[in-house]
Amino acid sequence: MLKLKEHSVLPGFNLALGFTLLYLSLIVLIPLSSLFFKTATSGWDNFWEIVTNERVLASLRVTFFSSLIAAALNAIFGLVIAWVLTRYTFPGKRLIDALVDLPFALPTAVAGITLAMLYAPNGWIGHYFAEYDIKIAYTPLGIVIALTFIGLPFVVRTVQPVLEEMESEAEEAAACLGASRWNTVLRVIFPSIYPALLTGFALAFARSIGEYGSVIFIAGNMPFISEIAPLLIVAKLEQYDYAGATAIALVMLLISFMLLLIINGLQGWSNRRGMK
Amino acid sequence: MSITIQNLNKQFGNFTALNNINLEVESGELVALLGPSGCGKTTLLRIIGGLDVQNSGNILFHGKNIAHRNARERSVGFVFQHYALFRHMTLFENVAFGLRVKPKKERHNETEIKRRVHELLQLVQLDWLADRYPAQLSGGQRQRVALARALAVEPQILLLDEPFGALDTKVRKELRRWLRRLHDELHVTSVFVTHDQEEALEVADRIVVMNKGEIEQVGSPDEVYANPGSPFVYEFIGNVNLFHSRTHALWTHQHGDAIAYVRPHDIEISSDPHPSSLTAIVKQIRAIGPTVRLETATLPDGEIVEIELSRERFNATPVSVGDKVFIYPRHIRLFEEKKKNPEFSAIAHHS
């Protein structure tokens, strides 16, 4: 017989595992599996037709590509912010630290409307770009900006504790051994924060894929150009096309799950190399 | 390579960490910086290594002023108390690090790097663990790797910051003996920081005793122990009994405000009174290895005096708790109260 329970000094294994499974079922598993069932009711051919529709494919492309770019931008600049916040002391540091969490708290629609106003061709920031014929709001560029805003705290908050924990002695040791600053960053600092950075990237990316509120205000929502998949789902729902909506949702779910699995795998791999 | 330190000062805000330090370390010497925590010994070591910057003063390596070079340009090996190994690298890569980051022109080829790393790992007797990660090693092993890593770039000077501070007693003893042997083989000028007097006495050629940012005394282990230059050194190295002249004028002679310092093993006990003996009651007897430690309280004022006797000496005239004994010093050293320099020292002979 398969032995589920190893004898352990920690009590409450059965209760804790039971609760975990129940909770996950109610919150995650059942809603998501109903997605499968709902999609299945409409039949395979119908499903295939919906998801291979040009407009749907374009919207998926827009969603995943802009999320990827936004997450990558966040990985770079979030790392810089985390670095500044951990390594230096300056007046107003706590204020900036608090500011980082704001995207978590703000209703995303508010963020979307504000960003759209700022980056519109006649907005505060947008009009500087308009002079060079660069449009930001109502283009895919606008989507990237909204998603960057949304994802920023994820990277900063995952990298920050790792940077704080990192001993400056390792850097000093590298310097004594004759390593240049660049070599130290590349060979000593980066390898130790890389797993955390990857986690932050994955979180920001996952969050961006599902983002709806802020994007629709700044995207312009032009089919084939700046229409995101979540918007298409809402549009289908408004037309009572539940099968169509769940079909798109299912494809998004599968792609997201696959990408997160890959990122997880990468992390596991780098952790095994690094050992704990 | 010799190290010369001239008029070195270091402040952290209002706190003076180092106050006008002058020190000479000869080529090939193994020198210990000894002192209580907060005395500035680690700061001094870090400034020599270029990890901290002095406020004023000069540091000369082999007569050349390097005070304004950074750590990278000083080619000094540094060993940290908490090892500071690169956690994501194997032992091999840790030791190879210094060789790999050399500028392209000076860098060895891969076979040469491999050969040297294995040679160093053999030197620290860890060659068989080359593919392990630091987390898989014990503390003592980690510190040996840290040492191999520091030696890989063939430094002219080796600096060690409490290298055995984080290890347990047995491993410490082993490692310091091993360090001494290694130093005798390599003859690299070494400075190590410790707050453990036993460690300093056992390993170092010379000891620099520091207190409150200043050097109290520099000398060989024997000199520092047998002939302490100040009350601080007396109290910091080895055990000592203090006798104030006010209460024990007999021992401190006629001098005004003076304190007599007497080592526990410089006190003789006997059952007969002596011209200069004090009367004391035996409070406690503890046998520790080859010595027997007596705690006695003087009569009438009850001051505690510690006495150390060899086991044979104790067995020749055994006493027990509660006995009244007469104690007298074989060797006394006087310091004027609240002054650093000994007013004079006297050896009292009683036979």
UniProtKB/TrEMBL annotation, chain A:
Q: How does it assemble?
A: The complex is composed of two ATP-binding proteins (CysA), two transmembrane proteins (CysT and CysW) and a solute-binding protein (CysP).
Q: Kindly give the membrane topology term recorded for this protein.
A: Multi-pass membrane protein
One GO location term (cellular component): plasma membrane
**What does the function comment of this entry state?**
Part of the ABC transporter complex (TC 3.A.1.6.1) involved in sulfate/thiosulfate import.
Matches recorded under NCBIfam families: 3a0106s02, permease_CysT
For this protein, the record's InterPro entries field holds: CysT_permease, MetI-like, MetI-like_sf, Sulph_transpt2
Write down what this protein is called.
Sulfate transport system permease protein CysT
- Keywords annotated in UniProt: Membrane, Sulfate transport, Transmembrane, Transmembrane helix, Transport
Signal peptide bounds: none
Q: Does the keyword DNA-binding apply?
A: no
Q: Enumerate the subcellular locations listed in this protein's record, separating them with semicolons.
A: Cell membrane
For the ABC transmembrane type-1 domain, which residue ranges apply? Answer: 60-263
State the organism named in the record: Candidatus Nitrotoga fabula
Q: Where are the transmembrane segments?
A: 12-37, 58-84, 104-124, 136-156, 188-206, 213-235, 247-266
Q: Which gene encodes it?
A: cysU
GO molecular function terms here?
Answer: ABC-type sulfate transporter activity
The organism's taxonomic lineage, starting at the top:
Bacteria, Pseudomonadati, Pseudomonadota, Betaproteobacteria, Nitrosomonadales
Pfam families from the xrefs? BPD_transp_1
From TrEMBL, chain B:
User: Where would I find the ABC transporter domain in this sequence?
Assistant: 3-237
* Gene3D superfamilies the UniProt entry points to: P-loop containing nucleotide triphosphate hydrolases
The record's GO CC annotations read: ATP-binding cassette (ABC) transporter complex
The source's superkingdom equals Bacteria
Named from the GO MF annotations, one term is: ABC-type sulfate transporter activity
UniProt cross-references to SUPFAM superfamilies, sorted A to Z: MOP-like (SSF50331), P-loop containing nucleoside triphosphate hydrolases (SSF52540)
Q: Which UniProt keywords apply?
A: ATP-binding, Cell membrane, Membrane, Nucleotide-binding, Sulfate transport, Translocase, Transport
**InterPro entries given in the database record:** AAA+_ATPase (IPR003593), ABC_SmlMolc_Importer (IPR050093), ABC_transporter-like_ATP-bd (IPR003439), ABC_transporter-like_CS (IPR017871), Mo/tungstate-bd_C_term_dom (IPR008995), P-loop_NTPase (IPR027417), Sulph_transpt1 (IPR005666), TOBE-like (IPR024765)
- NCBIfam families reported for this sequence: 3a0106s01 (TIGR00968)
Query: What PANTHER family does this protein map onto?
Result: SPERMIDINE/PUTRESCINE IMPORT ATP-BINDING PROTEIN POTA, SPERMIDINE_PUTRESCINE IMPORT ATP-BINDING PROTEIN POTA
By what name is this protein known? Sulfate/thiosulfate ABC transporter ATP binding subunit
